[in-house]
Amino acid sequence: MKLYGSQTSPYVRRIRLLLAAQPYEFVDMQIFAEGDREKLLALNPTLKVPMFEHDGQMVFDSGVIYRYLTTVLSLPALSWYQENQLTVINAINDSLVTLFLSARSGLDTNEDRLFFNIQKQRIAASMFVLEQQAQNHEFAQWNYIAMSLYSLLDWVIFRELLELDEYPALQAFYAENKQQAAIATTDPRLT
Ligand SMILES: N[C@@H](CCC(=O)N[C@@H](CS)C(=O)NCC(=O)O)C(=O)O
């Protein structure tokens, strides 16, 4: 089993947390640096991480990798409710990546622009829903959904993308799970 990714990516981290007890090779790539970008392009035309290689099969996208691993590792399939939770987590993650890359491209994301405003509206609405679910203790089990949520929150803190003051239940979830397996070794601050 071989996982291609980067130390900072929250999408990669959720798979690393899932594989915490498994032997696998981690290929740490600098996806925006020239050499690794060529390697990435040769392996995956979407130019995104993570990718997963097993038994001569290459699998793209964290969600598809999870589905692949449900078979290989006999993990439980996600319920439709959990699928929706993951979609909400991914919506925040994707919009934050979009804003992050916009800022890195020299754009002022504080400008009153439709493109930036819809990302921010999606992030706020989705964070509100996750906060309510955390208040209802819906992330009490350390499963793939909780791992995905933790990876998102820690990346938000690491990159200073959002203030978490308005989300006390999500902060409590974050604090409660700091000691889980592979959290320390997958910390994005280790870059
Ligand atoms: N839907 C993908 C999203 C993966 C993704 O956006 N990864 C980011 C790193 S956090 C990436 O590779 N970004 C490169 C880019 O957007 O060019 C998944 O779940 O794996």
From TrEMBL:
This is Glutathione S-transferase family protein. Residues 1-77 form the GST N-terminal domain. CDD domains: GST_N_family. It holds the Pfam family GST_N_3. InterPro entries: Glutathione_S-Trfase_N, GST_Omega/HSP26, Thioredoxin-like_sf. Coiled coil: none annotated.
